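Practice problem: predict the structure.
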Amino acid sequence: MSLGMTLPPLTIVLAGPRGFCAGVDRAIQIVERALEISGAPVYVRHEIVHNRFVVEQLEAKGALFVDELDEVPEGATVVFSAHGVPKAVPDDAQRRGLHSLDATCPLVSKVHREAERHYAEGRQIVLIGHGGHPEVDGTMGQLPAGAVVLLEDADGVDSLVVADQTNLAYCTQTTLSVDETEGVIAALKLRFPNIAGPRKEDICYATTNRQAAVKAIAGEVDALMVIGSANSSNSSRLVEVARAYGCRRSILVSRASEIDWRWFEGVGRLGLTAGASAPEVLVEEVVAEARLRFAVTIEERVHARENVIFKLPAVLNRANSDLQQEVALT
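Answer:
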């Protein structure tokens, strides 16, 4: 834009809440605190959360991300990601003498405990979720093979094969579309009227709040942008929700440097939010870049206030903790 040229107007409607949830914040703090206590390197099995910016920030501090435990040298400290892990993983870490820290989101752990409770009561579990997602792998891995069957959508209900149609329970991944999951559950209950459900819904508060915030603005903006990584389930669901609620022109971008600004042609009102694993600094980055190209007006639209805080593992709060002297950390 040359000097003296008037910038075109753009109203950015910031949806709230957005960005980090309590589980993501806790997981990142666990890695950072482990680095402070034991020094680099600290190994992390899989991405601690699904966001490349966050991963790269932790790598710069000394975290090393690995796919499997066999990449972690004996005696090292390893952190399990926020998505949760199968039971075989911490068992393997203990056998190998690794010092492990579990950064599983407490709301994911809640689903694990629910599945265990249903199994102990003799029920087979139907897990509603996306195959291949680490949270789904972790939940299914809490129980023996065959104890949990995966259901990805309502279309799969009629073909679902179970051991006993009268003795079932369902759980869900925590980052699903609220509306779509309600449809899947309704289809499940229609086929299996006696199926038991969770005492409290499994889709987490952060997913629910962020989707509700997008629903509230989708019909009044020309386009909507979600900041988040492509492998982030909760971020991808926000794009789907925006399109379903009237904003067909909705996209997912990881950060400002990825934006094709030609996409903004004809956009006077832009909805902007971030998935639960994307930091607010990436939202601020997009706003700053937009100001170089537009006369920006900001509108804040807050659907709900969040004050949830999850405690760190006790060992990380102890003064003068030494991870290298711990036999096992939980």
